[in-house]
Amino acid sequence: MIRFYAPDIESTATLPETESGHAVRVLRKQPGDTIEVVDGRGNLFGCTLLDAHPKHAMVRIDYRTPLPKVWNPSITVAVAPTKHLDRMEWLIEKLVEIGIDRFVPLLCSRSERKEIKRERLEKIAVSAMKQSLKATLPQIDEMVPIGGFLNSLCDSDCLKYMGYCDERTPRTLLARNYVAPKDVAIMIGPEGDFDPVELKMAIYGSGFEPISMGDNRLRTETAALVAVNTIHTLNQAAPLEL
């Protein structure tokens, strides 16, 4: 069954305009049809369509079922957006499908892209959440300077890793470094990599560990995806606590 996204479904019993149009104009839903709705906060609702209005379709909520995320630790991914925005849009889609909790577009000194449309990324994230049968929408931040992101983690006890390409800086493989299951923040720099000042701020000021995803040289978006997939794989392989 196709799912719809309505963050305020419990208080309004109404689908947002975009979702209403998709249900009524595209899928030809009629009053009496049953649909599934998620609120992005881990809840799935079984609903019956009452008014098939293409801009504000009204529903009756028949039941509510918690649908928690399937991974335990919190995963934050901070990435300096690439010059070509379509690669970032692809990355958001795949990260949401795999499972993350927060995505932060980073502004670094060597960033080729200085701005990004968060609304567009959120739209892609919503679509990926529904397609992958999740009910939790990750937080998508506005673009923030790297210093601001580092400051946001000052009081966090999560594991902190940064992908870094300079072989003169000691690095360890993420797969050998990560302690599962543990909250984690992963930072991936721009196509020109982090500059030395940013590296020092992250390592000595914020406790980030330089890591590698292997011997292959990866694009920015590929490195972020490999890192998150590695975290999920290690968490799935971790022994269960008794």
Structure description:
Helix 3 (85-98) links the parallel strand 5 (75-79) and strand 6 (102-107). The protein starts with a strand and ends in a 5-residue tail after the last helix. It is an alpha/beta fold and 242 residues long. It is elongated. The longest helix is centred in the last third of the chain and has 18 residues, at 220-237. Helix content is 34%, strand content 24%. Strands 5, 6, 7, 8, 9, 10, 11 and 12 form an eight-stranded parallel beta sheet that branches. A four-stranded mixed beta sheet has the order 1-2-3-4.
List its traits.
elongated; single chain; 8 helices; 34% helix; eight-stranded parallel sheet; 242 residues; 12 strands
Question: End-to-end distance, in Å?
Answer: 36 Å
Unreliably modeled segments: none
Overall form: elongated
Largest sheet: 8 strands, parallel
Q: How big a fraction of the residues is strand?
A: 15-25%
Q: What is the number of helices? A: 8
